[in-house]
Amino acid sequence: MVAGEVPSSFDAYKRKKFFKDARHYYWDEPYLYKRGPYSIYRRCIAEEDVQGVLENCHGSAYGRHFATFKTANKVLQSGLWWPTLFKDAASFIAKCDPCQRKGGITKRDEMPLNPILEVEIFDVWGIYFMGPFKPSSNGHNYILVVVDNVSKWIEAIPCPACDAKVVIKLFRTIIFTRYGIRRVVISDGGSHFINKVFEKLMKNYGVKHKVATDVLAFCMSFGAYGMKGERKDLVHGRSSTGYAKEEGGSHLEDQLDHPVEFLNSTGQASTRSS
Ligand SMILES: [Zn+2]
């Protein structure tokens, strides 16, 4: 085009096409320009410069590793053009090391956002009957243990039998009055917990009653842990329950009336092993 000659290898069709295409090009020593849409002239660049231009328009701080279309647009905005611009940009990005490492992170790759269940202190209680033990002088041979799931606060009351009456009395007189209406009570599903009266009480107060088989382990471990002494500030029970009476008795069965001491003496073994 610069020499004003047509390559001799061109046939009639190719000659026609060549002259038609040539209308869009403009030679301004020493550069060749192409007229694009809106009559914008863009400089055509040599093949060996392609990689450098793409590096600048994609990999540099100016390029910021955008995708094919945006990278090609950056090249066009810089006033440069070559016939295989989009194709070269795509293959350049496919080989770009940082892009391969990062990958195309889309919304689909996001980890699902799980709502965090917020459990406040005294919201969840684990409840369990311990026993039967050898009856104390007051006729108590069970201990009803209620452990708060968060703080591991323990309420324990000695009782002569493991029935719904004791459970309901504990919730009415201690748990609900002292700690307010809570959200969930977890029991081991024993018949003293699964009955109409208890269910009605829970329903009236809007408390969920759940059954978990490992509630024993839970109560025992935290009960024993609480008794160990590290959490003695949290251990309650004893006469605060209103059930146990102060009584001087050093026998194990008599300690049943003071469940905290009793748990302390029986829970030692399991505490040490853990
Ligand atoms: Zn990249």
Automatic annotation (TrEMBL):
Pfam families named among the record's database cross-references: Integrase_H2C2 (PF17921), rve (PF00665)
Family annotation (InterPro entries): Gypsy_RT_Integrase-like, Integrase_cat-core, Integrase_H2C2, RNaseH-like_sf, RNaseH_sf
GO biological process: DNA integration
One MF annotation (Gene Ontology) recorded for this entry: nucleic acid binding
Record domain Integrase catalytic: where: 111-212
PANTHER family: ENDONUCLEASE-RELATED (PTHR47266)
Name of the molecule in the record: Integrase catalytic domain-containing protein
Organism field: Microthlaspi erraticum
